[in-house]
Amino acid sequence: MKHTAIWSVIGTTALVTTLAACGSPSEQASGGEDAITVGATAVPHAEILEFVRDELAADAGLDIEIQEFTDYNQPNAALVQGELDANYFQHRPFLEEYLANNEDADLTYLDDVHLEAFGLYSDALGGVDDLGEGATIAVPNDGSNLGRALQLLQAQGLITLEEGAGDGATENDIADNPEGLEITPIEAAQLPRSLADVDAAVVNGNFALEANLAEEANTLALEDTEDNPYANGLVVDSADVDDEDLNKLDELLHSDEVGDFVEERWQGVVIPIEAGAAGQE
């Protein structure tokens, strides 16, 4: 089959859960290969990796250990410090922002694997038109995802951004806010819980999945998935770009088996992307 190419913290301490006891990257796995240690957020990233580990890795000669993170800051730091061999949780703009703020880091994004659409959700309101004067909207506070959230609000006609604001837009780039919406940036992982205190929230796809917002809240809007630059992919240390095992893992993440698993498991909420479809930057 082919998959059509369409297409993020919290507290100061990351909760890390080891999902497979295969030893550290330097230890020899039972099959003779070094275990690949991959850091990931829970849904859908760790679930996809679990499928690869349980169903595909052995036949490819791979031994995969998964470390689950609950924030967006620790996985890149752990990769830079050599605690991971790869991570799988972020899109290109997020990595680019991290690298711009961490000059000693040398990480490479391999390829897009899947897309999770941002959504505007509410516990109380039934549609975008119900967002009246002075309504409160929570958005993610990390740079690349803040801009992404504001772009979604603009696409819904709620605000207008300054020309050229782009994906790095902030609240200061709002040129027109006709309803006087109160836009409040908070930590991305807290957004689902914020729905009890705000009129609506723009929530990252993975956190919306974890909180089951499609069923537990009203979906007011979803971002356009066509030509979306926010697909998530595997990231490695730049010195390991040609590592055979890491490239095998990337190939497995783009396999038909993984694509079928993603499509069946998330029914279009998570969209698999064909290898190389978005090109390399």
Automatic annotation (TrEMBL):
Grouped into one coarse class, the protein's main location is membrane
Iron-sulfur in keyword set: no
Which residues are annotated with the lipid modification S-diacylglycerol cysteine? Answer: 22
The UniProt entry, under InterPro entries, shows: Lipoprotein_NlpA
Which compartment or compartments is the protein found in?
Membrane
Sorted alphabetically, the keyword list is: Lipoprotein, Membrane, Palmitate, Signal
Superkingdom as given in the UniProt entry: Bacteria
How does it sit in the bilayer? Lipid-anchor
Q: Which GO terms describe its cellular component?
A: membrane
Q: Give the family from UniProt.
A: Belongs to the nlpA lipoprotein family.
Q: What is this protein called?
A: Lipoprotein
